[in-house]
Amino acid sequence: MTGEQLEITCGDARAVVNTVGASLRAFEVAGVPYVETYADEPPMGAGAVLVPWPNRVAGATWTRDGGTHHLEATEAARGNAIHGLVRRAEWTVASRSADSVTLRIDVSGAQGWPFPFRTTISYTLDDDSGLTVTHGVHNRGELDMPFGVGTHPYPRPGNVDVDECVLTLAARTVLPVDLETMIPNSEPIEVVGTDYDFSAGRALRDVELDTAFGGCRPGADGLVRHSVSHGDGGVVVWADPSFGWVQVFTPGEFPGKGARAVAIEPMTCPPNALNTGVDLLWLSPDESWTGRWGITPLV
Length: 299
Known about the structure:
Blueprint: E1 5-10, E2 13-18, E3 23-29, E4 32-33, E5 48-50, E6 56-57, E7 61-64, E8 67-70, E9 81-82, E10 92-96, E11 100-107, E12 117-126, E13 130-139, E14 145-147, E15 150-152, E16 166-168, E17 173-175, E18 177-178, E19 183-184, E20 189-190, E21 202-203, E22 210-214, E23 224-230, E24 233-239, E25 245-249, E26 263-267, H1 273-276, E27 281-283, E28 288-298
Antiparallel strand pairs: 1-2, 2-3, 3-4, 5-15, 6-9, 7-8, 10-11, 11-12, 12-13, 13-28, 14-27, 16-21, 16-23, 17-20, 17-22, 18-19, 22-25, 23-24, 24-28, 25-26
């Protein structure tokens, strides 16, 4: 596996981050895993950082202010650009301590992206919240820059089979897509009364999703919370309210595991937002943005 493996610890918690893609490779507490891990290259986007857009851009082309931009078609089979510009790049370690590491990368001259920017990510462990992840984006150019941020963890409910667990989502809507292209083809619909309502929790067994959910509502503590739980515990993926979308993916088998997994991917905007403008974030020249999410064991 390429890239340096950066380990941080706090008490009996441990996380490993790869400098390639700044991706999360492991998070465990007392030896119990709370994300899916892997031996070599990250499979199926595991742990990826999705900047300056999450999910897909239709036809790898987007238009803004009368200009058309042609991105690299990184999802060649569907002709889309997927998951941003930084997930396969080598990041630089900006700072590091026993329980925290911050990485950064500068992007300029990328195909179809006329906005130079810097993005940072910090992974921090503590005894209360588990793992906290903080994203930063800074516009280094002379034009207003649209962008979105996402991440691609596969939260794991300890040593319990995913199919023995309940999925709970803070989402109020689901986004229909064309199943050939995976690009949205209509407006979001309310999940109430549909098979996509996970607000009160539903068993994961036999559930198959590769689905964008929206309207993610924060709780009383001001945070959006999704969970994979069982009678003895589980795991929570929490996020700032700016992460109002979440993609949920349930692959039939996670490579190297021999069993199912579930990805819960906080996103600030839906698929194809560069074309639709839905929930895009904007930065003026020399302006910065920050947002947080994290993973907390349920015990």
